[in-house]
Amino acid sequence: NFMLTQPHSVSESPGKTVTISCTRSSGSIASNYVQWYQQRPGSAPTTVIYEDNERPSGVPNRFSGSIDSSSSSASLTISGLKTEDEADYYCQSYDSSGLVFGGGTKLTVL
Amino acid sequence: QLQLQESGPGLVKPSETLSLTCTVSGGSITNNNYYWGWIRQPPGKGLEWIGSIHYSGNTYYDPFLKSRVTISVDTSKNMFFLKLSSVTAADTAIYFCARHGGNTPEYYFDYWGQGTLVPVS
Asked: A3 CB near a chain B CB, below 8 Å?
């Protein structure tokens, strides 16, 4: 199995742009799709990005995803930050051994 | 609108078996060949995938939990189930059931239950 490593926390001001990274420990980041989930306190996760860079309906286009094969990492970028974006964010991918979640990143919008 | 609801005992003793049910409403568990999964979250920690099942009974399990996990399905009741044996305090977590958005476990989770806290004590 592989691991997905995320920064423990990031913070940024309202209106700014923040990027959260997710680095795959082994294998190519491009081998399997990466998903991003948002989890607010006391709630179940919801998907903000799936299949590397696709947004579910209802997710604003302020949220975008990308992958970089050279660094074996995926990124979630949130532009025009709003206080409501404050949450935990988890990346997730897959290989033949199963699903793997990153450790999560706490986004503070202050 | 598809809804998933976890249910089970509020407390499990160490060394016993944790048993949870996920009831699916607003759609059939056999529709479109979706996979259905269990995920857990220890208090204050991150998400952990436990395993996933297709209505045909085909299952995938996390390699580290595989020896203790059984996931099954009852299509007549539109439910799927989790059994985790020989639990310890480390298995204390919020347990979520969820649906994969496609016909393999590689698809993202598009619908989630609200989660149920299961303490082991």
From this structure: no
